């Protein structure tokens, strides 16, 4: 069965950096676009970024553009999110999510991980 | 960016009754609309895609309808496990993919 397991969350000071990982199993990872979506306290889901199946193309939400970098290693079935210049409003549970296409076409998210908590606080 | 607006923010319903959740898009999303269920500490779960197609393993009591800018998720007879937060998401125009702010379905 499809499994997505996030790791790397924790407490970081404002301005700091953190790298999240998502290990995937149970499906052909290199076929599908992969996303990060976050859930901040008291707020709704917010789409963060997507990387295409071929590791080449990426797109970002405006709130993280220029600070976050999404990437993937198809040989290791792993998705990453490198986060820099973290702010208090980046505090959230970060979910990785699989889409049903290759990342170049619109898609919904058919499988999600359980999330990893990132807290930005001094 | 397409802004998604869900109503109501909180819905109180008794087990066994029907629940109707609404989602409105600021511009047409065609039928590129998904619904997700989210419980604390759990992964979000896909319920509906294409506005009206149930995802694999989703019970028939969940149904979706609508197109363009107005969408509805109906749960015909609420079970205890259905009390959760529900989100709609459009995937007609991206980036960005956008979600509604959620409807919390609570026990009356």
Characterization of the model:
The complex is a heterodimer of chains A (122) and B (108). Chain A is mainly beta and 122 residues long. Helices cover 0% and strands 50% of the residues of chain A. Chain A is built from no helices and eleven strands. In chain A, the strands form two sheets. In chain A, strands 2, 4, 5, 6, 9, 10 and 11 form a seven-stranded mixed beta sheet that branches. Chain A has a four-stranded antiparallel beta sheet with strand order 1-3-8-7, with no helix packed on it. In chain A, strand 5 (45-51) and strand 6 form a beta hairpin. Chain B has 108 residues and is an all-beta fold. Helix content of chain B is 0%, strand content 49%. Chain B has no helices and eleven strands. The A-B interface holds A 4, 35, 37, 39, 43-47, 50, 59-62, 95, 97, 106-115 and B 32, 34, 36, 38, 41-46, 49, 55, 87, 89, 91-102.
